[in-house]
């Protein structure tokens, strides 16, 4: 998420702290946790992820659809679920990676991010998120390699 900042009156709201988008993401996460607690661990969360992807505007939707297909094919043991209102993929209930659409935080590019549960360690410093503007054959290969490493 982006840094906190003060929204000006010219932007329509006046507050200190989180942006409107960040507050919305936190509200979505609280709703996800409440829903998850009510329905139990065996719920069909993939349909929720697919519905969230379908709501996205282009090019985020095309990237998210392709990424979802790549993850399901390359790591079928991962469970699709929502995380802060974004598509995420978990193993044994622990989030491994997620897709952050560019539009969610008005960013220049979408992001494929990995949690600390992903085994991406390389020495004392390594990337944990990757900018995505489109998914090409080379990008698909890189994502596949990252998933294999993350799950090793």
TrEMBL record:
InterPro entries, A to Z: YdhG-like
Origin: domain of life: Bacteria
Region described as Disordered: spans on this chain: 1-20
Residue span(s) of domain YdhG-like: 61-121
Name this polypeptide is given: YdhG-like domain-containing protein
């Amino acid at each position: 998420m982006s840094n906190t900042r003060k929204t000006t009156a010219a932007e329509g709201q006046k507050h200190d702290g989180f942006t409107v988008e960040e507050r919305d993401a936190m509200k979505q996460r609280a709703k996800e946790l409440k829903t998850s607690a009510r329905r139990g661990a065996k719920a069909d969360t993939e349909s929720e992820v697919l519905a969230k992807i379908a709501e996205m505007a282009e090019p985020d939707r095309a990237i998210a659809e392709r990424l979802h297909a790549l993850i399901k094919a390359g790591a079928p043991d991962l469970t699709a679920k929502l995380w802060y209102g974004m598509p995420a993929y978990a193993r044994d209930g622990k989030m491994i990676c997620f897709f952050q659409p560019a539009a969610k935080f008005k960013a220049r590019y979408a992001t494929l991010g990995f949690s600390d549960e992903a085994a991406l360690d390389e020495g004392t410093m390594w990337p944990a998120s990757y900018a995505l503007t489109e998914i090409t054959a080379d990008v698909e290969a890189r994502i596949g390699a990252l998933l294999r490493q993350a799950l090793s």
